[in-house]
């Protein structure tokens, strides 16, 4: 097991390199970079005088009837390129980026006037709150419900829960979020929950118990929207996985030996059926943690990593784009490795080293 773990850890390095390289090449081909955006801003101010940060000289920019850099002082364009690091060739910029990342230096945002690592740390509590609690509640609901449906397959309980699951699956999470706001957040009916933010304005003045209540009070609606929009697939996956195991010969043999129903279900079936559920945990967690909550963050005014990454991509804020890409990918690979190791906790018979051999 140790050799397998070491190999997986070593594979993280080339995987990160490949992902960063591919995205770097794609970014180079994408139009509308930071230099072009700065030129567009300069063109929008007729007769304005612009001071380029760090340049120390004032350059007059007159007229607005030109395209791209046409009509701009070449020294001004060169200074803009130097300011954003585009005065160097692409391979050199990529090498500098990799060197900085090895030292955990992710640079500064082009447009937010802050270090990338500080921005990530600032937005992390929102994404952790949404991803962690949504994933935890989703698994706590879906797994018992899926097992109950498998045991009662074809019954009235199975039919009406399947109908509820289909309805929940058919409604997108963001649409359900809007419905929750209309009904419970001062829309047209009740005003029971806050509409925005992760905490109240007087959060620091509350007691410990008050802070915990206030925290979950703000999270109630966004987490409900995320869980309703994502638990259907996991529930049906759990049900089908248990049904597949229940119909196997070893279950029939165990029952013939006189073992109780619960002993067979949780002593034999559970361990085998849960393997496929565990396999999907890393992707489910990372999906909710980084990307699945983007629209939820927008609707409930929660300034998290998903919203920040989306805005960085739109604004071509390359340090934020690549910094978050590096950190997200690294966390995803680590969580995937943890998921593989969890296999052995559920079923010690699994040996990754012998499988690779």
TrEMBL record:
<dbReference type="GO" id="GO:0005886">
    <property type="term" value="C:plasma membrane"/>
</dbReference>
<feature type="transmembrane region" description="Helical">
    <location>
        <begin position="273"/>
        <end position="300"/>
    </location>
</feature>
<dbReference type="InterPro" id="IPR035906">
    <property type="entry name" value="MetI-like_sf"/>
</dbReference>
<feature type="domain" description="ABC transmembrane type-1">
    <location>
        <begin position="124"/>
        <end position="339"/>
    </location>
</feature>
<comment type="function">
    <text>Probably part of a binding-protein-dependent transport system. Probably responsible for the translocation of the substrate across the membrane.</text>
</comment>
<dbReference type="GO" id="GO:0055085">
    <property type="term" value="P:transmembrane transport"/>
</dbReference>
<keyword id="KW-1133">Transmembrane helix</keyword>
<keyword id="KW-0472">Membrane</keyword>
<feature type="transmembrane region" description="Helical">
    <location>
        <begin position="130"/>
        <end position="151"/>
    </location>
</feature>
<keyword id="KW-0812">Transmembrane</keyword>
<comment type="similarity">
    <text>Belongs to the binding-protein-dependent transport system permease family.</text>
</comment>
<protein>
    <recommendedName>
        <fullName>Inner membrane ABC transporter permease protein YejB</fullName>
    </recommendedName>
</protein>
<feature type="transmembrane region" description="Helical">
    <location>
        <begin position="9"/>
        <end position="30"/>
    </location>
</feature>
<keyword id="KW-1003">Cell membrane</keyword>
<dbReference type="GO" id="GO:0042884">
    <property type="term" value="P:microcin transport"/>
</dbReference>
<dbReference type="Pfam" id="PF00528">
    <property type="entry name" value="BPD_transp_1"/>
</dbReference>
<feature type="transmembrane region" description="Helical">
    <location>
        <begin position="163"/>
        <end position="190"/>
    </location>
</feature>
<feature type="transmembrane region" description="Helical">
    <location>
        <begin position="215"/>
        <end position="238"/>
    </location>
</feature>
<keyword id="KW-0997">Cell inner membrane</keyword>
<feature type="transmembrane region" description="Helical">
    <location>
        <begin position="320"/>
        <end position="339"/>
    </location>
</feature>
<keyword id="KW-0813">Transport</keyword>
<dbReference type="InterPro" id="IPR000515">
    <property type="entry name" value="MetI-like"/>
</dbReference>
